[in-house]
Amino acid sequence: MSLSYGNTEIETPLHPWLPRGIKTDRILRILLNNPDGALTRYRISILAEVQHIQVSLLLKQFESKGLVKGTRVIDYRGLMTEWAKRKVKFQSQRYMHKGILDFLRRTNLRYALTTYQAETLVNHYLFPTKIEMYIDRLDFEKWHDALVASQAMVGGGNVVLRLYDGGVFYKSFDVNGYHVVSIPQIIVDLIREGGVAYQAADMLLGKQQTAQASKNIGGKRPHVSDVQRS
């Protein structure tokens, strides 16, 4: 379904089927947010809204690569690299909105910040050159109308809406009045961004590994080239 707003046309994914790879995306997000193995395969399937057999087959694949043991992550960096390679296509739309941060503090619409602004809030390393956020793909019209009503200009600009599956909000949290995606989601998005964003991802990844050190979760450092070759 194509919606047109002025000179802007965006293909909105209102169809009932899901983008290729989205179920694997959900499972990886859950694993990396719960690396200690406390979740059973059944519980993961419920949280990811996938069949139990899909979880089992994926875990078997990861186990053969030395990334997991059962549902416990034994190579956190390696599994993060695996996730970064498995990109899911999504639509996005840009806006210019000088007061976007104030708008986000006031809105009741569901969102979660990622990449630069999210990293700035949790790690304070990157300058937020753009404000990227995930929204539910079915909420696009509401977001568009709300942004335009608040004087946003469509096309180009500092604000990027990522139209995505609702699973992206798993383990999202609040920082200083803003909604932010989970730390693993920030990391994988920064890795995919590359350049200086990868440096920030590596810093966050190091902190995650330090936090999990007592649980014997480790692994080798992921390389940008490994991700970019995929």
Radius of gyration from CA coordinates: 18 Å
User: Biggest β-sheet, characterized?
Assistant: 5 strands, mixed
CATH topology of the largest domain: Beta Polymerase, domain 2
Approximately how much helix is present in the residues? 40-55%
Give the end-to-end Cα distance, rounded to a whole number of Å. 30 Å
The assigned CATH architecture of the largest domain is 2-Layer Sandwich
Kindly report the spatial arrangement of strands forming the biggest sheet.
Answer: 6-7-9-5-8
Mean of residue pLDDT values: 88
Helix/strand class = alpha+beta
Global shape:
globular
The number of distinct β-strands equals 11
Helix count, per DSSP? 10
Order of helices and strands: EEHHHEEHEHEHEHEEEEHHH
The first-level CATH class of the largest domain is given as Alpha Beta
Estimate nothing, just give the exact number of structural domains.
2
Give the percentage of residues in beta strands. 15-25%
Which residue ranges are poorly predicted, with pLDDT under 50 across at least 5 consecutive positions? Answer: 1-16, 222-230
